[in-house]
Specification:
globular, alpha+beta, six-stranded mixed sheet, three-stranded antiparallel sheet, 406 residues
Length: 406
């Protein structure tokens, strides 16, 4: 896009390097754009890709862009849009870059697995798997890396249970996901991991064709058998869901980093178990879960937003993290208020492309809080908070290790 072709006065382009941040620090560039920018609709240039893109940060504007069909995902394919990672380059037909009605048709094929009933189907098994992990950790004795012992393997086990991935294949899934999400391995390694994961799901879904199972692979196999989706579409969606499910590893790591660096909050949740569900909701709102932004959209026609004209063909990003700190929606937004109500957080997105894994992610967070606060009463950091290492070169934020004792 060229500024010479646009007659209106445009806000300046803000360079956004989106470097990895430690702890639960809020991105200072995003904070500046929210608080001191030229207005609610700004322009940014990320560290990869080409050109600039619009960015919206206000809660109502984020909801508008994410549910308005005038902003589409599919048009991003094969365009060098400015983006946060070198390998964040969508392929044609990728599930996350389809627009309705194809996107609606594809999501419908697995919707049953992500309803309340579908998620409750794996609750009992999840509780048992988590209890086993905590028991093994206690037997090993402190100090223990909580990420390696519990916070990493548990979300992997749950998403694989939902997906229908056999236990023997789960470590391989975890390895592929880490390579796909991290830019530190290089674009080639990430693409190779994606191809290998795709080949795995292609075989698994083909084996489940005609299945009556309730896991995702079975649902996709049945949909392929009914010719409601193609095998390529089913594989693309399975890869997206698997990767998204493992992102909870970072979320749970940051959640417990916050609890362990705020012992008064952890003690309150131990003493008042009834408030834990609301506390989890509030922590999911407050914790910055990713570096920079997710996938972009493209304006399919000229759209006016907050007095700014978004031209047809312009790229636009939304920030759910910024929306979750909008003071017009969340009074005192930078405070952790476990009694906050209402709490209409956008932690799992909004509109047709909202994350289908929101319910299982919330279930995992609640189970982890119960298991670790009740099962390990003296749980605390074994190192100073500033010495906790955080992942570098990855889209999803989280501690590399969380050394604890009790």
């Amino acid at each position: 896009m060229s500024e010479e072709t646009i007659a209106e006065t445009l806000p300046p382009v803000r360079d956004w390097p989106a470097a990895g941040l430690p702890g639960a620090d809020f991105d200072p560039v995003l904070r500046e754009l929210m608080d001191e920018g030229p207005g609610p609709v700004t322009r940014v240039k990320l560290r990869n890709g080409e050109g600039w893109a619009w960015l919206v940060t206000r809660y109502d504007d984020v909801r508008t862009v994410t549910e308005d069909p005038r902003f589409g995902r599919e048009a991003v394919v094969n365009r060098q849009v400015t983006r946060p990672a070198p390998h964040f380059d969508p392929a044609r037909g990728a599930a996350g870059f389809l627009d309705p009605p194809d996107h609606t048709r594809l999501r419908r094929s697995v919707a049953a697995a992500f309803t309340t009933r579908g998620v409750e189907r794996v609750r009992e098994r999840s509780v048992r798997m988590l209890a086993e992990l905590v028991e093994e950790m206690l037997q090993d004795g402190p100090p223990v890396d909580l990420t390696e012992a519990v916070l990493g393997p548990f979300p992997v086990a749950v998403i694989c249970e939902l997906m229908g991935v056999p236990a023997a294949d789960r470590q391989g899934m975890h390895t592929w996901t880490r390579q796909i999400l991290s830019s530190s391995h290089g674009a080639e390694a990430g693409e190779r991991a994606r191809r290998e994961m795709s080949a795995y799901f292609s075989d698994l879904i083909a084996l489940r064709e005609g299945s009556t199972g309730e896991d995702v692979a079975s649902l996709l196999g049945a949909a392929v058998g009914r010719e409601e989706v193609t095998l390529d579409e089913a594989v693309g969606l399975a890869v997206l869901l698997q990767i998204g499910g493992e992102a909870v590893t970072g979320t749970s790591g940051r959640l417990f980093y916050v609890l362990l660096t705020r012992p008064e909050l952890a003690e309150r949740l131990r003493a008042e178990p009834d408030i834990r569900p609301r506390a989890v909701d509030e922590l999911l709102r407050w914790i910055p879960h990713r570096n920079a932004v997710g996938p972009s959209r493209i304006a399919m026609e000229d759209v006016e937003l907050q007095g700014v004209r978004i031209r047809k063909g312009d790229a636009i990003y939304v920030s759910y993290q910024a929306a979750n700190r909008d003071p017009d929606v969340f009074p005192d937004p930078d405070a952790i208020d476990v009694g906050r109500t209402p709490n209409p957080r956008l932690s799992f997105g909004f509109g047709p492309h909202h994350c289908p894994g929101g319910l299982p992610a919330r279930l995992e967070s609640e189970l982890l809080v119960d298991a670790l606060l009740d099962g390990v009463p003296g749980l605390r950091l074994a190192v100073p908070a500033e010495d906790v290492p955080f992942r570098k070169g990855t889209l999803i934020r989280g501690p590399e290790a969380l050394l604890v004792t009790w």
